[in-house]
Design brief:
binds adenosine-5'-triphosphate, Nucleotidyltransferase, domain 5, binds magnesium ion, 19 strands, 412 residues, Dna Ligase, domain 1, globular
Length: 412
């Protein structure tokens, strides 16, 4: 039996290419995020992170939330939902305003004005702003200011990172959540949420790249001096590795997936040359024995290719040489044996696997890279609820996304 809806409850909903995952939680008396329910269901309606079938997506959402509600012991109504896909774009922008009040002192009014000015980049009609993230402020000639409130000056400048998505992608996401019987409390770019779950403040300050390697996407975010300076979604992921195994070993996709998880390794040097594994064949033929190194020879080039694609983006960001805290990998595909070694070979910098941290409750159930996104959405939701107390987006009667000016969220 599920109890009634509680208004202190926050729900993170990660609709991934391979699985949909709902995490329910609240902020406990120690001000920690306490996870009380988790549910997952296979995703059937997505391709490379984007919804291609609303009905199938809606039924995955309903299943995942239902399972999480049962575990938590109560029902939920609205969710913080993640968005992804290579159509999402991140770009840097800046705004400048004069500090015109009598005392020439910066207050929230000036900060709001400068953020609005920074949003004045040309955004095509088919795109919508998802996030405006602050990098730094400058007051007159003084640069590198995190919070200019109370400072005196005549000119205030803001550097921001703006993330936009196609309106249709957002609408399809809202439709799928709606159809499953829930409401979108907010829509969050996936890696921003994953970062909340797995990165430390120190890493963001030092400079770090976060890559969430999922089934059909790699979601990348580069942090420098505490702020986001680059973001990108690539259409590649663990599904490609599985497909390679299926073709290379002539085995069905389902068994290729199992073989990958059980015996897969991303680096040949890590595998004992004498070790053998058993692989099921297609068409009812008897299973075959093969050397584990043969499997690794299929996986290694694909993983190297994925890492090289990430590396290309780091180069494009112009910040590759400034990442003192290296690279943090998360997402299900980062659980592949040898993934860190494969990444370190390509990046030549320290690499670690990011798992959800700083949470209470049933944390053992979610302490894996596969849950980083969903837990991150819960943490993000908790942070936003603390400040706003209510939904950022409200849907109009027609069910469309209403355009509300975005206030700078990480400045809050
Ligand atoms: N132990 C493991 N070893 C290797 N790969 C794994 C392991 N566990 C999960 N994976 C892979 O992780 C991928 C799924 O990861 P994840 O759940 O993060 O993706 P998703 O969120 O559904 O997709 P996306 O983020 O791309 O939309 C699958 O390709 C799966 O094979
Ligand atoms: Mg994912």
């Amino acid at each position: 039996m599920k109890g009634e809806i509680r208004d202190d409850i926050i729900v993170g909903l990660d609709i991934g290419t391979t699985k949909t995952c709902a995490v329910i939680g609240s902020i406990n008396e120690n001000n920690q995020i306490e996870v009380t329910g988790v549910g997952t269901a296979p995703s059937k309606g997505l391709k490379n992170g984007v919804i291609v079938n609303i009905d199938n997506t809606a039924s995955s959402i309903a299943k995942a939330i239902d399972e999480a509600e049962l575990m938590a012991g109560h029902e939920v109504s609205s969710v913080f939902v993640g968005i992804s896909g290579q159509g999402i774009k991140g770009e840097n922008s800046r705004g400048v305003v004069a500090i015109s009040n009598r005392s020439r002192t910066i207050t929230s009014v000036e900060i709001k004005r400068v953020i609005e000015a920074a949003q004045a980049i040309v955004i095509p009609v088919d795109r919508e702003i998802l996030h405006v993230l602050s990098k730094e402020f400058s007051v007159d000639d003084q640069t590198g200011i995190k919070d200019p409130t109370g400072m005196s000056g005549v000119r205030l400048e803001a550097e921001v990172h703006i993330i936009t998505a196609q309106v249709t992608t957002i609408q399809n996401l809202i439709k799928a959540v709606d159809k499953s019987g829930f409401q979108c409390q907010d829509i969050v770019f996936n890696p921003l949420a994953s970062a909340d779950a797995v990165l430390s403040r120190d890493e963001r300050d030092l400079g770090v790249a976060l890559a969430d390697i999922g089934g059909g996407t790699v979601e990348l975010m580069v942090y420098l001096e505490g702020g986001v300076s680059y973001s990108k979604v690539l259409s590649v992921g663990g599904i490609h590795v599985t497909n390679d195994i299926s073709i290379g070993l002539r085995t069905p996709i389902e068994s290729a997936e199992l073989i990958k998880k059980k015996f897969g390794c991303a680096v040949l040097d890590l595998v004992d040359a004498s070790e053998t594994i058993e692989v099921p064949s297609v068409g009812g033929r008897a299973p075959r024995k093969l050397f584990k190194q043969e499997l690794t020879q299929i996986i290694e080039p694909r993983m190297t290719e994925i890492m090289e694609m990430i590396d290309q983006e780091l180069l494009k960001s112009g910040k590759r040489d400034m990442l003192a805290a290296g690279v943090v990998l998360t997402g299900g595909a980062s659980m592949l044996d040898g993934c860190v070694e494969s990444a370190e070979k390509v990046f030549s910098m320290p690499v670690r696997i990011g798992v959800p941290r700083d949470i209470a409750g049933i944390k053992d159930k979610v302490a894996t890279p596969q849950y980083a996104n969903a837990v991150g959405l819960l943490i993000y939701g908790a942070r936003m609820s603390r400040f706003r107390g209510k939904a950022r987006f409200e849907r109009s009667g027609a069910g469309v996304f209403s355009k509300i000016k975005k206030w700078l969220e990480d400045y809050l």
